[in-house]
Amino acid sequence: MSAVDSRLLFAWLEVTGLCNEFCDHCYADSGPKGTHGTMTAQDWLILIDQLADMGTLDVQFIGGEPTLYPSLPALIKHAHERGLGVEVFSNMTHIRTELWDVFGECGVKLATSYYSDTAEEHDQVTQLRGSHNKTRANVQKALALGIPLRGGVVAVRDGQRVQEAAQDLTALGVGTVGGDRTRAFGRASQGAAPTIADLCGHCAHEKCAIGPTGDVWPCVLGRFLIMGNVLEKPISDIWGGSRMLDVAEDIAAVHGDDVQSCTPPQFLPMCGPCGPCVPSVGHCDPREVDSAATIASPA
């Protein structure tokens, strides 16, 4: 089944470009100077309705740091009411009491990035002093509250304690620990233009991403491939439309059948040739599914 013929089962909703961290490898190029974009809370509510009406199963709220978006609780509640599974990808440093309550009430799943078992190294990556202690404490709180949480360790620097970071998360009780390398997008590209060859090849297959200005991308990394804008037309018109067909053909022309193998990267919860899975499944690599926790070797 081609990307254009597939159903839209999963959507990343990037509600803000604002983040309290400033990681060198951030694919979204978000940070303290980011904004919430031009999508209003009402625009997001309308989009959630459109996704639900299309039969979408799951959404993941991302950023930036989505917990900094004031209307996130309302969006989560609405998505839950419409029968969508919800995951929030957060750096876990800034979670208000209201959000903890909503997470529990709406069956939200959480995902987070973790860079080292030492505060010094983790904070050097995030460029936010104290971020390691806050993230680790909130990971413990989420698990204590019974909120499902998966962790991802990205190899950013030579000699980074990625294995120790994964072991630390596992010791805390995190059942699924994925790993990934730095991807050459956003700040990690160091000014180089993004290319389709840098993508995994599964983009737009049963999934898409919507950004803070309403742009629709084939995935969170493929934001240079705009398929439409939900402020101009409904997502149901964009999905399967002529521009999406063009983007899908461009991706296929580069990757063909030579797409990357299925792994559980920390920010791509359901990319893989075997399904693909949605966040509620969690671990989508059939070769590793029996493993309680995995971590990719640094590239």
TrEMBL record:
Keywords: Iron, Iron-sulfur, Metal-binding, S-adenosyl-L-methionine. SUPFAM superfamilies: Radical SAM enzymes. The keyword Transferase does not apply. CDD domains: Radical_SAM. Pfam families: Radical_SAM (PF04055), SPASM (PF13186). InterPro entries: 4Fe4S-binding_SPASM_dom (IPR023885), Aldolase_TIM (IPR013785), Radical_SAM_PqqE_MftC-like (IPR050377), rSAM (IPR007197), rSAM_sf (IPR058240). Residues 202-248 form the 4Fe4S-binding SPASM domain. The keyword Metal-binding applies. Residues 14-148 form the Radical SAM core domain. This is Radical SAM protein. It comes from Streptomyces spongiicola.
